[in-house]
Amino acid sequence: MKRALPPLNALRAFEAAGRLGSFKDAAAELHVTHGAVSQHVRVLEEWLAAPLFERRNRRVVLTPAAKAYLDEIGPVFEQLVQATSRYGISAAISRTLSVNSIATFTLRWLVPRLAKFHLEHPGVDVNVETSNEPVESLKETYDVIIRGGPDTFYGYSMRPFLPEERVPVCSPALLKRLPIRMPEDLREHTLLHTSSLPRLWPDWLAKAHVPSLNPAAALTFDHFYLTLQAAIDGIGIAMGPTALVTDDLAAGRLVMPFDGPRLPSRSYCTYVPLERSTDDRVNLFCAWLEREGARSRTEGTS
């Protein structure tokens, strides 16, 4: 007969919240959001068809039945901890992590940093697929999805890790050949566009107080990474996302002809299915992205 086991991630969230007497403390222990713990508890309450906590202002208190339930399952979790410790944590987190990420971000930011992740976490293999589909339209289930945000999707926890702005960038050779001292000088240049982001240059020119400027030429590409490569090759000037050109600026492949203005843009965020939000490998990867994002921001402003 099939065993009637409750959702294990929901059970783990309940055990931590019940043991600690706080959703906030449980979230900190499990490296997830307060909302993720609350959602897991609701899932378990629905599965059991019974309430587990009484909400009293900002506190949560176990119901008498839930206290008895916790007393029974608590030792089981402790046995799991001890058994896993004996077996070895590297074996416990060795399954491949599946990641779905935006193509340009993957090519220009994530891939150059993945070798570092493997050096820091050799027991965690990562399989990366690229897609620009919205989170809710993906047909496959992934451990981690990287998209712009912050957005809210039912059944997912969200963590921003890398903010972004848009600024003009070009090759230093182009700037040497045709110097730029003010936005009006862009009349002598080729402006590079991306078909999926047609408003970038018009919005920037308006913010730079030259909304009617006519460039010498314009080229449009269907992918952002092609637009940026054209800028590196000296073909023209692109509106570069700061997060994705940090390495090129540091290496001298690109320069920013202007200090500003800068166009605001969405941040890069991780979206994790709630049932995966307590997975050790998932949280290792998301925490690593946040550290690398902070390091990238520091390098970009230094």
TrEMBL record:
Q: Does the keyword Hydrolase apply?
A: no
Give the matching PROSITE patterns: HTH_LYSR (PS50931)
Q: Name one GO biological process term.
A: DNA-templated transcription
State one molecular function term (GO): DNA-binding transcription factor activity
Q: Which domain of life is it from?
A: Bacteria
Keyword list, A-Z: DNA-binding, Transcription, Transcription regulation
List the SUPFAM superfamilies.
Periplasmic binding protein-like II (SSF53850), Winged helix' DNA-binding domain (SSF46785)
Domain HTH lysR-type span(s) in chain numbering: 6-63
* Keyword Nucleotide-binding applies: no
Family statement drawn from the similarity comment of this UniProt entry: Belongs to the LysR transcriptional regulatory family.
Q: Under which name does UniProt file this protein?
A: Glycine cleavage system transcriptional activator
Give the organism the record lists.
Paraburkholderia humisilvae
- Lineage summary: Bacteria, Pseudomonadati, Pseudomonadota, Betaproteobacteria, Burkholderiales
